[in-house]
Amino acid sequence: MIGGGFFGNGPVQVALLIGGGAAVVSAVVGVFTVMRGQSFAGHALADISSAGGSASLLLGIPALAGFLAMAALGAGGMEMIGARQIRERDLVTGIVLGAGLGLTALFLYLDISTTSASGAANTVMFGSMFAIAPGTVPFALGVGALALAVSVVLYRPLLLIAIDPDLAAIRGVNARLLGLLHLLVLAVAVALSAMTIGAILSTALLIGPAAAALRVATRPVWAIVLAVTIGLVATWGGIALAYDSFYWTPGHGWPVSFFVVVIVVASYAAAGPVGGALARRRATALPAPVSGFEPGG
């Protein structure tokens, strides 16, 4: 199993730092994404960001900058078009998603045919956690910290819109501006997770821990805490298992993204029975009604 060389390994240290940061940001943003019913938008932005990741390989710029730029463009386009056609939000998201994947196909073709990036498709779509450059760490953690700060500022109005949109409108909450800001923070979350476990699988890190936490927790704050815990366990556990897998099949380690997704899915599956048991326990802990007293009577 994991030996002393695990924490002393340079690529592992980078993976733990950036992967942990991506897990925390994705979990916090993911809770509001699930509560607002924007899981499909999150998945679409992750796929759209793959165009930026593939373009960065072609242009020789940092991969995170490419993922971020394209995800932000996709978020702005979805909100701008969706604001005029609210009832067709999923349709607009699908159209923008298709355009993004078309660009991804073009850039990956150019990557393979004009450069020596033969593994470009695998890197962009499924991530390459142990190949992230150490110089990326400050930028990635800085962007993640900024996204978390914005999420803290937006916490109360986002929660109000997610629970009671009509009350939010009465209180003068600017739903369109708030929606755009949330999509931009969501773009940062999917860009970070796309760089670590790949554009296709980043949805698992964004939605999975949040969905599992919301099956168990009854308060948003506890849902966020639990989602962060699940995200970190999945990411750091996936890194540890992938590192150890080099000894299972010598010279051929298993992908980190595979282990991360397995742990996320297992957490979601376990959250159902745990949430049900907790709900029954809370119900039995309520005081029994006084004889002759009828609720509402």
Automatic annotation (TrEMBL):
Superkingdom of the organism of origin: Bacteria
SUPFAM superfamilies membership: ABC transporter involved in vitamin B12 uptake, BtuC (SSF81345)
Ranges that cross the membrane: 12-35, 55-78, 90-110, 140-163, 183-208, 220-243, 255-279
Membrane topology value: Multi-pass membrane protein
BP terms from Gene Ontology: response to zinc ion; transmembrane transport
A Pfam family it matches: ABC-3
Keywords: Membrane, Transmembrane, Transmembrane helix, Transport
Cell location: Cell membrane; Membrane
Protein name: Metal ABC transporter permease
